[in-house]
Design goal:
homodimer; about 300 residues; alpha/beta; Rossmann fold; 6-phosphogluconate dehydrogenase C-terminal fold; 2 domains; six-stranded parallel sheet; three-stranded mixed sheet; 11 helices; 9 strands; elongated
Chain lengths: ~300, ~300
């Protein structure tokens, strides 16, 4: 902490993810200057007003021109365009990284562009976030005690990888290296599938029209907590669904089988099997909680 | 507040629900004496030690013999047995009530028993709870600013209904009257379906065995919060699933249709439809939050 790791960082996309990364590095004095860029001018202006970034760039080219590190913190579907715009203006030997929730498509799109422009690309994904978005929701502690997965390939420069790793550690994260395909499969299970289910549940329940009143008015804390993630940014999740299709469809299929098994047990009123199904789930869920408590 | 509403209340089942009801009434001085009974002797002993109840009964008969109100706070599948045991020992004109999460089967089972024994039955369901269970998890504020649904029938005695309503109001709840069938349908949507989904999700993800490590170790706060309700008591949920089968199967079927629609949109990589699906859900979910904030 307190060691300046780089002179200038450009954050492309100053929302919850990019903005919180900037705030964490600034607080740790790990960077001299953070310059921000966002396609949403209002959000960029807000980021500057709130001190999330030191300076708003006048253009994406200006943002990255003399940056040592460029962090792409935009929705997965916008990574390719953003990368195309930045690589040709970055200085040779600078490091490009990203925060995308899907890694196979991003690596396939961005790595060749970076190589062609003599900049080093390191793919990453901080496992944290809230259901909120925008510069106004950024906070320096977002990455504290969270995991950040980096997915290096055979082409990844080791010095660049080490630098990005140090930045995430400085932001408070535990950094894990993982194979790109494995990342996308595991995230499909623990993050992308739950989001698809939460969105489907809210749409299903809110379309229940047997009674004139809005039945969601009766929902207590359980439903509210359970569906929190259905308030997440629809653009971000559209892009994740489009870019992690294969793994996500596999996981939805697996979930459907378990739900079908449960439905069958309800249909046949099989109390012993229902108890076993719920008990098994409770044991797994309680184990997560125990692990988390251990980590804290 | 501060008005003593009844002399003696018997709580049958001194867990989270029954114990919290006892604590709330004692704190408000709404009752002179609370006597508890539980089939789990250790839990009953704990309830007495913690002051959740004033006294542990030596038998279910002794608990209810001179009680003005008997509250059945046991899993739905144990209601019939508990009611059969209490009605023959209750004094004529006393009031019997319950906290079951399903109302059609409970009313069908308990109302005739109560009528035959000249006691008044009022069916109820407090819409609150946590994923914890047992006397040790009971707390007096559980029902603060929560809804409690009473489901009177044509046979319900108005004085008994008014008394039970006052007790729940004293415990901090907003009391709502609702048709029995409507209660079970709405709860299937906003509570029972989400629990079935959470249990299925945890079982589905924890059975993912493509990698040797436990992938749940990678799950962040989102998964933990989303699956909190999968830590709920398996016996309670077995009984709910068995006793609200028709409505629950209808809601699972409706959810499956929405998930299938989403799966189709992912398969065909239809970004516009995916965005619309997620956006619509976010709007509904955010509206719940706005309503809740308004209520608080």
């Amino acid at each position: 902490m307190g060691t300046c790791l780089v002179d200038k960082i450009a954050i492309i996309g100053v929302g919850l993810i990019g903005g919180s990364f900037a705030l964490a590095l600034k607080r740790a004095h790990a960077v001299q200057r953070v310059i921000g860029w966002d396609t949403d001018a209002d959000n960029l202006s807000l980021a500057t007003q709130l001190g999330v970034v030191d300076e708003a760039a006048l253009s994406i080219e200006q943002a990255v021109a003399d940056a040592d590190v460029v962090m792409l913190a935009v929705p997965v579907g916008s990574m390719l365009t953003a990368a195309q715009q930045v690589v040709k203006h970055m200085k040779p030997g600078a490091v490009l990284s990203d925060t995308g929730s899907v890694k196979q498509t991003v690596v396939a799109q961005v790595e060749p562009l970076a190589q062609a422009s003599s900049v080093y690309f390191v793919a990453g994904h901080p496992i944290s976030g809230t259901e909120r978005s925008g510069a106004g929701s950024a906070f320096a502690e977002l990455y504290h005690n969270k995991r950040c997965i980096l997915t290096p390939t055979v082409n990844t420069n080791i010095s660049a990888l080490t630098l990005i790793e140090k930045l995430w550690q400085t932001a408070g994260s535990e950094v894990v290296h993982m194979d790109v395909v494995k990342h996308d499969r595991i995230l499909a299970a623990i993050s992308h599938l739950p989001h698809m289910i939460a969105y489907s549940l809210v749409n299903s329940v809110s379309s229940y029209d047997r009674y004139p009143e809005n039945i969601l008015d009766y929902s207590a804390g359980g439903f509210r907590d359970f569906t929190r993630i259905a308030s997440s940014d629809p653009i971000m999740w559209r892009d994740i669904a489009l870019n992690n299709r294969e793994s996500l469809l596999e996981m939805i299929g697996q979930f459907e089988q378990f739900l079908a098994e449960l439905k069958q047990d309800i249909t046949s009123a099989d109390g012993a099997r229902l108890y076993e199904f719920f008990y098994r789930s409770k044991v797994s869920r309680d184990a997560i909680l125990a692990n988390v408590a251990k980590d804290d």
